[in-house]
Write a structure and sequence with these properties.
By secondary structure, the protein is an all-alpha fold. The protein has two domains: 41 residues; 55 residues. It is 54% helix and 0% strand. It has seven helices and no strands. Helix 1 packs antiparallel against helix 2, helix 1 packs across helix 3 and helix 5 crosses helix 6. The chain is rod-shaped. The two termini are 45 Å apart.
Length: 130
C-alpha cells in the first residue's frame, strides 16, 4: 500500500505557494506531481492543513443481529443458497449489501461457500447430457 508524502514536504510546498510560486514550479522544484500540490493546497484551504487523510482502518460488520440470524438460518435451510439470493433476502429486509460482503460474512462465520456445477444447476452436474 502506498504511503502519503511527508508533512515536511507538504509544508514546504505550501510555503512556496504562499511565496507566490505556481503549482507547476513548486511541483517541479520538489519532484512531485502537479496534482499532488493542487490537492495539498485544496486540503490546506478546506481543513487548514495539508495533512493526509486517514488511510485504511477497520469497518464494523454490517450483517449483525437479526440480519446475521436470517443469513445463518437461510444457509441452514438451503445449503446451496447463492450469495445473490442472500443479498436479495437482506435487501428485502432493509439491508442493502454487496454479495462480496455476504461472502466475507460467511467466511468469518466459518461457513464454506464453493461454486460448482451442482449449485449452478447444470445438467452435467446432475449426470445428464451437457
Amino acid at each position: 500500500m502506498a504511503k502519503p508524502y511527508s508533512m515536511d514536504l507538504r509544508e514546504r510546498a505550501m510555503a512556496r505557494l504562499a511565496e507566490g510560486e505556481t503549482t507547476y514550479e513548486v511541483a517541479e522544484a520538489l519532484s512531485v506531481a502537479v496534482s499532488s500540490v493542487i490537492k495539498w493546497a485544496a486540503r490546506a484551504r478546506k481543513y487548514g492543513s495539508p495533512a493526509p487523510a486517514k488511510m485504511g482502518g477497520y469497518r464494523k460488520r454490517m450483517i449483525i443481529g437479526l440480519y446475521r440470524d436470517m443469513v445463518l438460518e437461510a444457509v441452514a435451510k438451503k445449503p446451496h443458497v447463492t450469495l445473490r439470493e442472500l443479498a436479495a433476502m437482506l435487501a428485502a429486509a432493509g439491508l442493502t449489501i454487496h454479495e462480496a460482503s455476504v461472502s466475507r460474512f460467511l467466511k468469518h462465520e466459518g461457513k464454506s461457500y464453493k461454486k460448482n456445477a451442482f449449485r449452478l444447476g447444470t445438467e452435467k452436474a446432475k449426470g445428464g447430457a451437457p
